[in-house]
What we know:
Low-confidence stretches: none
Number of strands: 17
Helix content: 25-40%
Strand content: 25-35%
Structural class: alpha/beta
Strand order of the largest sheet: 12-11-13-16-10-17
Mean pLDDT: 84
Largest sheet: 6 strands, mixed
Number of helices: 7
Radius of gyration: 25 Å
Shape: globular
Order of helices and strands: EHHEEEEHHEEEEEHEHEEHEEEE
Amino acid sequence: MSILYSETGGLHNAAIGKLETPIKMIIEHESDLLTKRGGICDWLFNVERSNRFGETIVGQNEFGVFHAAAEGEAATADGMEETYRKFIEHIQFMKEFTITAQMMEDANYGVAADAKRRVENFTRAYYKTMNRICEYVLANGTDTTGSFAGATLDLTTPDGKALFSNSHKYGNATLNGTQSNYYYGGILGSTSEFEAALGSLASILRNMKDENGDVLGYTADTIILPGNRPSAEMIVKKVCGSEGATGNGYNDINLQFGNWNIVVMPDWQASDDRVMIMSSEANRNLGGNMFFNRVPLTVSNWVDHHTGNYIWNGRCRFGVGFGTYKHILLAVDSDTAVTGATAIA
């Protein structure tokens, strides 16, 4: 993520001039570290630039298979039609921090330790905002709206349903179908139970239908877990990290070994055991989890002449939403029915 610096206004004394460049260097250094480290936004979302008020995702049905044609006959006509659209509006976020006049004086024309920590935290807060909003929209994917840091978020997919629903729509002018990406069942009671459930859930995701009613065929490769369910996390990591089937003495092959990336979302604090599985290829090709970067972190600074304090302001603008539901599903570990969810067969 690039950082923009706006022109500094007003007259500055020598102390301000000697502080500005070191502070910018700290911001750039912290930004480089966090960019290389990555986070939920980079790992689970499609990050794209935008230069508009918002972005509209338009879905179309696909061409069917080629039809046979006898010698000399014309080809069978086919066409594409719009089947859905989703608008994602950009939201503005801002933050400021202050270096007091006394702090500047005591820094001796350098950046004092406390001021340095403020600058580093300021940059981290920008990346924290992006990653946490991405965690929030996924963790609250059973709702249609949400509130994050004072912003109201639209959590629906193009069919108007929450990201996770048992009544998602698909179809075109002649087809009107529904399918589920929200499930419940015994999935995390043991390693053997999770291994069996994971196979079923992967098959469900692979058999998601497109707008023509054809099976999409995407392979699930990502498991997403809450940050506060250590027993479930241990079971998942054992299943996905063991070459042999766990919990038995006869060395069965573990079909799940080496097939999964595991992502734990720290701010997803679930009250029960649950898991998301996603196809990164479907997420990319179908425009699933979308993050549109309208304005990257833009930094400006000035002196408050009433107090003599040195103020730094950061502003950014981006949009987050879902272009489809067909790339991901949610499963809750429950032997009894869960509202809005389908039982795992």
